[in-house]
Amino acid sequence: MINALSKIWSFAGKEKGNINKSLFISFVYAIFHMFQIGAVYFVLLGIFNGDGSNKPGLIALALLLISILGRAITNYYSQLKQTHASYHMTADKRIEIGNKIKSVPMGYFNENSRGQVVGVMTTIMSDIENTIPIVLINMMSGILNALVFTLIILIYDWRIGLVVVLASLVYLYVTSLMERKSAQVAPKRQESQTRLVETILEQIKGMHIIKAFNLTGKGDVKVREAIKGNKRANLNIEKSFTPYNMAQELVLRLGSIAIGIVAIFLFSKGDMNLVNTLMSIIISFMVFAQIESAGSSMAVLRVVSSS
């Protein structure tokens, strides 16, 4: 994973600053998101304390407004920085490749594939443009935000926090297994994409021969095989990820259930009051959202790294 991240960081070039800004803004976004939990807590506290005034509701409303406004602003600027970074980093790289191609020897394309160059400039660069900033920022901000959220829960109640830590560690272990699997299949997908571009260029170059000799359906066998090969490569990636995705979801859902069970057990023993018990059950529905986002991005990391 570290090797893949270093590749992405090196590729970013002058856009590292925008990626850093987007990461920081995403972290602030998560803080505003946590204001929602505070709003619920004040409402529950007011109900169980018998507070019949409008104070708990007004506090909750203020926290919700801060959360909504803060998330709207931070999400806007985070997306803006991501889009700027993704467009300009690939644009700069296309210009760099174009400038190098201008100075290659005349016989370069006799020994090297034009399909590979065109594939890099089109399909591969499009993959990078559309996925790198999203994967990098979602993964890094997801990990950071999950750590902060976990620390807050540990301070709130170490027993509930311990369940969160254990579930997160198991989830990350499953994700690491999926990342290893991705490392095996990602290069094959990359090769199939290059082969597809090469065969299509060859088909276009020989189109006048195909038309002259009526070879439609016969002369495009290589193209059909390349399309099928590319389809198989993409399907193989999805199929190889499916068991790990199921395991990830199972771990997080069981972790959420475990939080509820532990909270109810502590309440039945008198070690946790009703407000904290209800808050723990509510937290169980949202505590793993950030780490789940980071884990899904880790799964695509090797594919992006291959590109």
Structural commentary:
The chain has 307 residues and is an all-alpha fold. 88% of the residues lie in helices and 0% in strands. It has 10 helices and no strands. The protein has helices spanning 2-12, 16-48, 55-102, 108-111, 114-156, 158-205, 207-212, 221-268, 274-284, 289-306. The longest helix has 48 residues, at 55-102. The chain is elongated and about 90 Å long. The two termini are 15 Å apart. The model has no long low-confidence stretch (mean pLDDT 79).
Which descriptors apply to this entry?
307 residues; 10 helices
Along the chain, the helix and strand elements come as: HHHHHHHHHH
- The count of DSSP E runs of length 2 or more, i.e. the number of strands, is 0
Molecular shape: elongated
Give the amount of beta strand, in percent: under 5%
Low-confidence stretches: none
Number of helices, where a helix is a run of at least 4 consecutive DSSP H or I residues: 10
Rg calculated over all Cα atoms: 26 Å
The description of the largest β-sheet is: none
Helix/strand/pairing class, anyone? mainly alpha
N→C terminal distance: 15 Å
**What integer is the average pLDDT?**
79
Helix content: over 70%
Provide a compact summary of the structure:
By secondary structure, the chain is mainly α. The protein is 88% helix and 0% strand. The longest helix is centred in the first third of the chain and has 48 residues, at 55-102.
How is this fold's topology laid out?
Blueprint (H helix, E strand, L loop, with lengths): L1 H11 L3 H33 L6 H48 L5 H4 L2 H43 L1 H48 L1 H6 L8 H48 L5 H11 L4 H18 L1
